[in-house]
Design a protein that fits this description.
Elements lengths: L3 E12 L8 E12 L3 E5 L6 H8 L7 E6 L2 E2 L5 H11 E5 L10 H11 L4 H14 L15 H13 L5 E5 L7 H16 L4 E4 L3 H4 L4 E6 L2 E7 L1 H8 L1
Parallel strand pairs: 3-8, 3-9, 6-7, 7-8
Antiparallel strand pairs: 1-2, 1-4, 4-5, 9-10
Helix pairs in contact: 3-4, 3-5, 4-5, 5-6
Amino acid sequence: MTDHVARIIDVHKVYQKNKAAPPVHALRGIDMDIPRGQYLAIMGPSGSGKSTLMNIVGALDRPTQGQYILDGDDVAKMDDEELSKVRGKRLGFVFQAFNLIPQLTVMDNVTVPLFYQGMPNNERRDRAAEVLKKVELSDRMNHRPNQLSGGQMQRVAIARALVNEPSLLLADEPTGNLDTKTGEAILALFDELHENGLTIVMVTHDPAMADRCERIVRLRDGLLSEDVAGGKLARVLRR
């Protein structure tokens, strides 16, 4: 295991719809290391490249040029099947829209990543019960998403992201669909997960949310424009 859970080395991403269309340079040479256990915010205006970078870090897309090293393996060179395995075993995702399966219970939603890994049913359910206890939803295992509040649905999504014991948790505007009080509770849960050693990368437009992170990376026009200590770390350093 390395000191960095991820390394992004000279990453470029170019999109081209067809030969007649001009190429779109979404990323123009990003260099960034993510130390193990860090809580990192990615910020930037619309079109800055932050979603593209998140997709590459999440193994949802490959760079046009450059390297993405995750736990020592070059993800950029992997084929679709290998990328799928990386997403299933090493990465956890939390989205603004929750993305739960409405027909499934809370327990079954959380076990989905383990099902695709081929884990036996009793082991899947034991693991899911463990993470649901962490997010304080042990009493909601047999409920369906439409029987839950927005905050509870996001907790289910977080449990689903944690159930495979990921190297890296990726969160894309995780409180965007929640009221202020519920969003604060979800962010407190992220703080707790980080304090327990989890590496978290969060895309956000909210400076107050980013201020909770140890580090803030800002993108502009596909370039890394700023890389600074977040409010949490800055307050520690000032002590």
